[in-house]
Design brief:
The complex is a heterodimer of chains A (about 160) and B (about 170). Chain A is mostly helical and about 160 residues long. In chain A, about 80% of the residues lie in helices and about 0% in strands. In chain A, helix 4 packs across helix 5 and helix 5 runs antiparallel to helix 6 (about 115-145). The longest helix of chain A is centred in the last third of the chain and has 28 residues, at about 115-145. In chain B, strands 1-2 form a two-stranded antiparallel ribbon. The chains are: A mainly alpha (about 160), B mainly alpha (about 170). The interface of A and B includes residues 3 and 154 of A.
Chain lengths: ~160, ~170
């Protein structure tokens, strides 16, 4: 995984970067080129020709990574908003933010633990369940009380 | 060659140097040339070869000491899976069954009290843990908080807050 991240970052920046720089700042989308010497810069520039073709098919992973974090932060804001200002906006926000978060979360789990042959099938099943979750939550928001109110109602159920 | 490597690394250890002895490099599955009966060589995957030779796996989870870092990480994953199960069950069930939520809650009033209590616990603790540890993850994504003592301190804070908020929610709401 570290190798893939390094490759992704290398395809963004055409100049050589210290290994330790990548490890120290994983969040930086653009790595400032570290001037090590002409030899290092030359090395990657010659290989960039071969990287061009694969880049179109395999865009750098950083864009996807950013999207994941944006959804996570939005969810982090939506949860207290659901408690303090329950209503349609938060309901629909949760309904469209939770399924992608679930999907990407399970992508990591499935990719980590399952043998390669099973990854595609399981990830397909996760995709189907995520889509059904999204549709179910949107439908619930539309036709019933909405997610925030539902949590409040369910929480009122007697436990003693 | 392997013997030389081990003996030199032991030397570093006894001298108390802080040199890194093992350098971790990501290795793609190695292709090992294998000759078939006809003499033509076939490229075999590292995993295929080990399967063919029926080699046992080295122990890993059973021998590694559980640490706060690893236990919190797997708990984060488990809590995410539990919350996903709650969300998916809720969404798919309400979509597929007739009647409003209010009618369902009326029907469920006859359930023994332990059932809603268990479901509440199973929801609120994973939720708080996942959210607060999620904040810790996002801080890591900004590149901060990786020093070992910071990791442990932030980990203990996450656990304390999770228990605190979860218990308060269960008792008072």
């Amino acid at each position: 995984m570290a190798a893939r991240l390094c490759l992704g970052i290398a395809t963004i920046s055409r100049t050589c970067v210290l290994q330790s720089t990548i490890l120290r700042n994983p969040a930086l989308p653009k790595i400032r080129p570290a001037i090590l010497g002409a030899s290092n810069i030359k090395q990657l520039q010659t290989s960039s020709l071969t990287l061009d073709k694969s880049e179109k098919k395999n865009p750098p992973a950083s864009g996807h990574w950013k999207t994941e974090r944006i959804v996570s932060v939005a969810l982090l804001a939506a949860l207290p908003a659901g408690y303090l200002y329950p209503g349609h906006i938060v309901d629909y926000s949760l309904a469209i933010l939770i399924p992608p978060h679930v999907y990407w979360g399970f992508h990591a789990i499935v990719g980590d633990y399952l043998p390669k042959s099973l990854v595609g099938v399981t990830q397909g099943a996760v995709a189907i369940v995520s889509v059904m979750t999204c549709i179910g939550l949107l439908y619930f928001n539309y036709s019933d009380v909405g997610i925030c109110k539902a949590v409040a109602m369910l929480w009122q159920m007697k436990t003693s | 060659m392997a013997v030389n490597f081990i003996s030199t690394s032991r030397l570093f250890l006894t001298r108390g140097n802080s040199c890194s002895i093992v350098r971790l490099t990501a290795v793609a599955p190695r292709r090992i040339a294998m000759s078939t009966a006809t003499g033509a060589s076939k490229q075999e995957d590292f995993f295929e070869k080990n399967k063919r030779l029926s080699r046992p796996m080295s122990p890993h989870l059973t021998i590694y000491k559980p640490q706060l870092t690893s236990m919190m990480s797997i708990t984060h994953r488990a809590s995410g899976m539990i919350l996903s199960a709650y969300a998916a069950t809720f969404a798919i069930y309400t979509m597929s069954s007739g009647g409003s939520l209010a009618e369902h809650i009326e029907a469920w009033k006859t359930l023994p009290a332990i059932v809603p209590f268990t479901l509440k616990c199973g929801f609120i603790f994973p939720l708080y843990y996942h959210v607060i540890n999620g904040v810790r993850h996002l801080v890591w994504d900004m590149g901060k908080g990786f020093k070992l003592d910071t990791l442990y301190k932030s980990g203990y804070v996450v656990i304390a807050l999770t228990l605190l908020f979860g218990v308060v929610d269960l008792l008072f709401y």
